[in-house]
Amino acid sequence: MRKTIHIAGGGLAGSEAAMRAVAHGLSVVLWEMKPKRFSPAHKNPDLGELVCSNSFRSRDPESAVGLLKLELGILGSVVMEAALETRVPAGKALAADRELFSRAITWKLSNHPDIEIRREEFAEWPEGDDPAVLATGPLSSDAVISLLGEFVPENLFFYDALAPIVTRDSLNAEKLFVADRYGEGEGEGDYLNAPMNDEEFDRFLKALLDADQLTPRPFEEVKYFEGCLPIEVMARRGPNTLAFGPMKPVGLVDPRTGKTPRAVVQLRRENKEGSTWNMVGFQTRLTIPSQSKVFRTVPGLENAEFVRFGAIHRNTYLNAPEVLDPFQRLKAYPRVFVGGQLSGVEGYVESAAQGLWAGENASRVAKNLPPVLPPPDTASGALLNHLRPREGRKVFEPSNVNFGLFPPLPGKVPKKDRGAARLEIAVRSLKTFLESVDYPARGSNPRRDPEPDRDSTDAPPR
Q1: Exposed, middle or buried by CB within 10 Å (0-12, 13-18, 19+), for 2?
Q2: Residue (of 446, 462, 444) closest to 454 by Cα position
Q3: Cα gap 276→329, rounded to integer Å
Q4: Helices 78-85 and 12-23 meet at what angle, rounded to 10?
Q5: Which residues pair with 345 in a beta bridge?
Q6: How many Cβ atoms are within 10 Å of 97's Cβ, its own excluded?
Q7: Half-sphere exposure of 427 toward its Cβ, with a 13 Å CA cutoff?
Q8: Crossing angle, helix 78-85 and helix 64-75, to 10 degrees?
Q9: How big is the chain by its Cα radius of gyration, in Å?
Q10: CATH for 164-309?
Q11: Distances (CA, A) of 107 to 17, 94, 416, 454, 462
Q12: Domain map (residue ranges) of the chain
């Protein structure tokens, strides 16, 4: 009798876990509460919704996140496949049209004969002893938190923020220029840039520091993730925090003046048509009236039309070193594997990777095979090692993948060559590892040939 794996959550991690299970010849029941219920940050009823940015960050395989993308490609990631299919220009980054991306993920899963999608909230553990994957994300519902409460004594949380999105037609093109830092993009440039001189930057900074913020409720502790600080929090650390952070002008020259501006606001396209653009690094918890006032002080954005204002929401994650085993199972309830950001990783690519391995090991356990871990000198292995106990670490916090999580390189390697060395070692190590274990390739196996109707899950995105 074919075994069934229940997966809670149709985001990036849950989608990866589902595709690993069917690659192993198992059946999947995927629980997704949308569209019956939405979290405070979700709007799209499709699977694989990109809630924050539409960027998967650097494509450079000699960077940690670029290496993780490369590994995911080798591993047959459905998320990387969909991101490439729906890619939009973003310089050296990989960015996707968020609606087409979600549509692609939905199509791939809903048309697989071995995946049943139940549009219901996951509110109780499934019967039986077969493994399950909990990948409900950082905005898990109260019902899921209640289920976890049976086995996990403490949930930690921090706040994450969304950046505003504006329409292209509402921007003043005469005050903007198109360029990528150091001309590293494709063609003339993928980013719109709003340059500021000293006076304009000082005026913006004053407006930002004087603006009203949303007040957290008394029982809510404000604990931000350092890699995604609200812009007003950065501003309070001093003006150079912005000028050397999200508003850094390095590598950008205003073609009208031939000079590097004091600061720059970069905008990255949100869709293939280029009709909407994201204010890069401008995540915020300002009130909506304050956002309208402050962000319109940016040159070129005086009449900006906001498709989405910045927002703040609570991200829930587990104290993984305390409550998860090395294979991402709940120590107190080993049939449950935890995938994605709920496990304590941060970022789209990281969530997909962790979800993939949670799905892989849940599938292996269902088939009475031993679970496995990718080598620690790979990006995948280094990321999973972050979730394990570490000597000297007093507080566990979510993390993006970074080379600081990797084991030391052998010998002395010049700084400029370390990325290439990491890449060579990781690819060789991963391929050797995959040859030593039963890692079945993912097949698409669609239920039917696609129709040309883009509004249907029976057709892939175009």
Answers
A1: exposed
A2: 462
A3: 40
A4: 120
A5: 399
A6: 23
A7: 13
A8: 110
A9: 22
A10: 2.40.30.260
A11: 16, 21, 42, 10, 12
A12: 4-159+317-436, 164-309
CA-nearest of 248, 242, 225, 251 to 92 is 251
Contact present, 359 and 339 (Cβ < 8 Å) = yes
What does the DSSP 8-state code read for residue 329? E
pLDDT score, position 311: 82
- Condensed to tens digits (0 to 9), the pLDDT of residues 323-376 reads 999 999 999 999 999 999 999 998 999 999 999 999 999 999 999 999 999 999
Q: How far apart are CA 30 and CA 326, in angstroms?
A: 24
Among 355, 361, 396, 319, CA closest to 148 = 319
Q: Provide the percentage of residues in the chain whose pLDDT is more than 70.
A: 92
Using the structure block, give the residue that is written with the tokens 């220009």. 89
CA distance 88 to 303: 25
Reported as half-sphere exposure (CB side, CA atoms, 13 A), residue 56 has a value of: 34
CA 51 to chain centre: 8
pLDDT of residue 292 exceeding 90, the answer is yes
Which residue in the block uniquely carries the two structure tokens 């075994």?
A: 3
Q: Which of 398, 433, 393 is nearest to 155 (CA)?
A: 398
Burial of 324 (0-12, 13-18, 19+ CB in 10 A): buried
Q: In terms of DSSP bridges, do strands 93-96 and 87-88 run parallel, antiparallel, or are they unpaired?
A: antiparallel
Q: Which homologous superfamily does the CATH classification assign to the domain defined by 4-159+317-436?
A: FAD/NAD(P)-binding domain (3.50.50.60)
pLDDT, one tens digit per residue, over 294-316 is 999 999 999 999 988 988 777 88
Residue with tokens 């979290």: 39
Distance, in Å, from the CA atom of 88 to the CA atom of 98, rounded to the nearest integer, reads 10
Q: How many helices (H) and strands (E) does the chain have?
A: 13, 17
| Distance, CA of 57 to chain centre | 9
Count how many residues are written for the chain.
Answer: 462
CB 91 within 8 A of CB 183: no
Max CA separation in the chain (angstroms)? 72
Q: Which residue is it, tokens 């993009």?
A: 185
Cα-based torsion angle of the residue sequence 357, 58, 264, 251 in order, rounded to the nearest 10 degrees: 150
**For residues 27-65, b (16+ Cβ closer than 10 Å) or e, as one string?**
bbbbbbbbeeeebebbebebbbbbbbbbbbbbbbbbbbb
Say how far apart CA 406 and CA 420 lie, in whole Å. Answer: 14
